[in-house]
Design brief:
Distance between the termini: 74 Å
Strand content: under 5%
Helix content: 55-70%
Order of helices and strands: HHHHHHH
Shape: rod-shaped
Largest sheet: none
Number of helices: 7
Number of strands: 0
Length: 178
Amino acid sequence: MSETVLALSKWDTTWIAVGAIAQAIVALGLILGLFNLRRASKLRILSFEDRFEERYQQLMERLSLEGLRGATLETPPAQVSEKDQLVVRAYFRLCESQLNVRAAGWVSDGTWAHWKQGMTDRMGHWPFTAVWDEIRTDLRAGHLYRRLRAFKNDNYTDPCTMKLPRRWWRGLTGPNRR
């Protein structure tokens, strides 16, 4: 039996080392590029969330003082003013949009927890309860607020069904920035 011995010259080992270093640099660049893509996605989502927060603030500024005090009133008024009804219905449309974008994976977990708490709090107090009862019992309004109805009926279940690795990649996981 004969054995073949492969002998490498100093020149060969130098080029092998250069190749290994080049591969490591390419791998590092690829990893950094992937993390930058994730960071850009996270920043895009934060910007998107900020627009919803701004819409919410604008709506709450339009609510009357009586409507703002609704959670603290011992006996709420019998009627909701027309102005407050418009604001509350706009709020329900905002909630519907928030639920839709959360389901599509455009809202981070931390922001979702914040929004969910806000929705459950608002929808538990007058004038929101009064307008919701009116919408809920109006047979002609059955096509309105489908996702919001399902959200309330499913005990406020998160509409985002993405698995954790995909949510992480999209930049949805992590601490709440608020």
